[in-house]
Amino acid sequence: MGNFKILGKGMATASRNxxxxxxxxxxxxxxxLVIVTPVFLLAKKDFGxxxxxxxxxxxxxxxxxxxxxxxxxxxxxxxxxxxxxxxxFMGLFIFLNGGIIGRVAAGGKTNLQGFFADCGKYLWRFIxxxxxxxxxxxxxFGGLLRLLAAPLKAWMRNASGEVPVxxxxxxxxxxxxxxxxxxxxxxxxxxxxxxxxxxxxxxxAAAATLSFxxxxxxxxxxxxxxxGLLFIAATAAFLVVTNIxxxxxxxxxxxxxxWAQAYILARIWIKVLFFATEIDFTRINWVE
Amino acid sequence: xxxxxxxxxxxxxxxxxxxxxxPGAPETTGQVGPPLRYEIWVxxxxxxxxxxxxxxxxxxxxxxxxxxDMFFHLYTNAxxxxxxxxxQESKEESLFIRARVKEGEWGWVDxxxxxxxxxxxxxxxxxxxxxxxxxxxxDQTVMRVTFPEPxxxxxxVRLRCEFESRVPRSGMRTGYYKDSYFISQWxxxxxxxxxxxxxxxxxxxxxxxxxxxxxxxxxxxxxxxNFVVGSSGxxxxxxxxxxxxxxTHTYAQTRIHDFxxxxxxxxxxxxxxFIADQEVTPQEYEETARQLGxxxxxxxxxxxxxxxxxxxxxxxQIDRHFKALRMALKxxxxxxxxxxxxxxxxxxxxxxxxxxxxxxxxxxxxxTSVLKSRKVLSPEGVxxxxxxxxxxxxxxxxxxxxxxxxxxxINTYSTGKVMAKAYGPGELGASFKGIPVGWFLKLPxxxxxxxxxxxxxxxxxxxxxVTPSWxxxxxxxxxxxxxxxxSTCLNTLERLLGADVMARVMRTFHTRFRFKHPATQDFVAVxxxxxxxxxxxxxxxxxxxxxxxxxGIASVRSVEKPIRVRGIFDVGGIKKETTSRDISKLxxxxxxxxxxxxxxxxxxxxxxxxxxxxxxxPLKMKVVFEDGTEEVRFWDGQExxxxxxxxxxxxxxxxxxxxxxxxxxxxxxxxNSYRIKAGRQGVFRFAAKILFILQNVLLxxxxxx
Lengths: 288, 705
What we know:
The structure holds 2 protein chains of 2 kinds.
Chain A (H helix, E strand, L loop, with lengths): L2 H14 L1 H30 L13 H10 L4 H32 L5 H46 L4 H35 L5 H14 L1 H28 L5 H38 L1
Helix pairs in contact in A: 1-8, 1-9, 2-4, 2-9, 4-5, 4-6, 4-9, 5-6, 6-7, 6-9, 8-9
Chain B lengths: L1 H15 L19 E10 L4 E11 L6 E7 L11 H8 L3 H4 L8 E9 L10 E2 L13 E10 L4 E11 L8 E3 L2 E4 L5 E2 L1 E3 L3 E3 L14 E10 L3 E4 L2 E8 L4 E11 L4 E4 L2 E8 L1 H4 L2 H11 L11 E8 L6 H19 L6 E5 L10 E3 L2 E3 L14 H9 L16 H18 L3 E2 L3 E2 L2 E2 L8 E2 L1 H9 L18 H23 L1 H14 L7 H12 L4 H7 L8 E10 L6 E5 L2 E5 L1 H11 L8 E9 L11 E7 L4 E6 L5 E8 L3 E6 L15 E3 L5 H22 L3
Parallel strand pairs in B: 1-13, 19-20, 20-22
Antiparallel strand pairs in B: 1-2, 2-7, 3-6, 3-10, 4-7, 5-6, 8-9, 9-17, 11-12, 13-16, 14-17, 15-16, 18-19, 21-22, 23-26, 24-25, 27-30, 28-29, 30-33, 31-32, 31-34, 34-35
Helix pairs in contact in B: 6-7, 6-8, 7-8, 8-10, 9-10, 10-11, 11-12
């Protein structure tokens, strides 16, 4: 089966699991709301009765400067208020990934009981996968990316104008994204391998994944990048529509809010799609 | 060609010995010429990045005191080693970019010979001086020489000087990259002799610009013959040398106080004319004359030759550059007086020379990038600002070391006005990896005055605006105070005085101090004189102190006025109690069809900040009632709070302090108004945006799991 067929099948699987998507969206909203609620209350206190409040919907220096002045001492607290939930969310997804992959692999519709059963079943194994990924990321960020960027940096250093600098720095970004996509793909397949084959040994899964991907790297990576392209397309579509939306009016606000949440749902759908295509790819190649 | 060089030498002689006037010279009828004259010969050695220079200086002692010595700026020594004041201050502030000079990239200047016209050698008397506090004894940016005899009042001393200088790789404002050079603060330059105070000659500081006396210049610049040169002044001669493959350009300009130049084989040189009658309509002349109270002839503008040196990679932006310069020439000319020189040279700074966004007399550097959104008003803003310095620094030449706001603040204020008039709001300029973010996202738009205010209110409590540049808490405080806060205070002043009065203030100040060195008290005096008000309090509060300005509405309450109140009352000698029931009965009785309820509205105003408004500038407060009526009252703002009550037949809907938006320096505009009924839509929109951003951050974080 070709990559496009796997992609189509994966899309159907991800779409069928709308219960799972809704559940993940709710978790994302709930986490974000924990941070947004105090911000909302603060904004209500400071701007609710003020005429300036009417302009809060758009970023304007009129109130941005005032906020910066008033809450300048709170900057570390604000950074913490974003960073800590982000880390917790990261941790939570180590747990949730078991449920996502488990339910998608099982096929059919997702029920909460089965979902959480899978979350619990694979938690410890996925924690070990996560721990294994840390030194890999350290090596990539600590050395590999720098090494790959060295010729580009030399080109930038000796550039006679801006164009080579812009090209080189964007090439550097593309290389970084591509390298990260390979690593992400590898650990995704490891998790899929653990679920599909109910493997308990993480290092064994790592070796098997390495061998599996090594034999069909281009196809596996191509599929992964295809899904990645869908993310880029969704983001582009979101930005295009957002930029043409009118800035004022309740209806416009309502539509903008729904459109933003549709984009979040699309991101979650693509997240599930990654796993769905990887599961299919693993199974098909096992059969082959 | 030879005849041309003879002509140039004759011209030099004419200048140095004080007869006649040069092309490009401003009208000086009835005015005493500048006390300084220079003739400089400089050769650029491209292989070694060296300048070999010779300089003849003529200085007239215009003071009543005999002067025993002379102080010189040797600014390039700021990049000589880590002991210089610039390097020390950069290190203290952790300005790594400035402090991190790589091996082989240091710059320096050596005065190899300095003597009087009669040959008396002054070199043995030369010493480096560091007088600024805190002291940096290793600094070599100020040199003093002692004369064998003091220079008597009215006497002129002529000096001959030779110097060698290595161009720093990329210093602050001066530097080279590959074959491109920007050369500023490069020649030994005397300080400013101040009557009764001696030489004003500060070291090169990390957070400061410059100060020098007006002078007449002739400069001969020799460069490789494939280099395109741009320079202060007017080109009067070019003499190629076929053997050496060099070319010597001679530039001359009277009544300027600095001289900078640039040379690169990579420049495209474009020349255009600013034709005043095409740029300014008769109506605009009339309107300006009316506003300023001047005869029409006084506001007419001259034509000016505009030269642009632009990097090839930016050639698509040539028209953008010229349009901005035309706008600047027009509005600065109309508002502050005609541009007095024949030429202006605009330089797109050579790549990686660290020289962008800087002003020099009749020449300035802009700065742009290859990918520029049209909605982002840059390079336009930089061009208007740096050209504007030709007025505020170039002509009204304050001491930038000691009172930088007088040029930076006034010029930022002026830039904002030109940009608003010529372009309107611009999009926030943000780029990622050289690609404008505005291509993908709708970024906020603002005028300069709005963004200036947002920055200004965040720096009020750190330093006063009027602080010596190198004594600010840090570079951020220096920049935000002297640029944005000063500009925002001037915007406030304009609203306090009215646009017409402010326009006359600025015109009077500029005209009076053209070719002079004004100080803060001169500006205050002009404000008081023109406005016929004592505005000293404004400058005391806003410029000389660190006082936050924040007046606001603490509360608004509307309640029905009681017909009767409870308690014991003496009625006909008998003590009678009025109860709640009695009041209810009275209320029911009073609720006839023609009876109108009366409401008591109480508004509490507070002075949250330390700054106060002055006498004669009370704060306006407006209350809007539900029946559409309005009431306006004034508060002198001296106490911490005041309670105002209104008795009306309608409840209050809204109270607003400073409803006309006079006090733009107010650090909290949100508390300037209070609606009884809260409006939530804006808050919801804000929260929804934050929610969306956070949802994306969380999803991105989850992808690492």
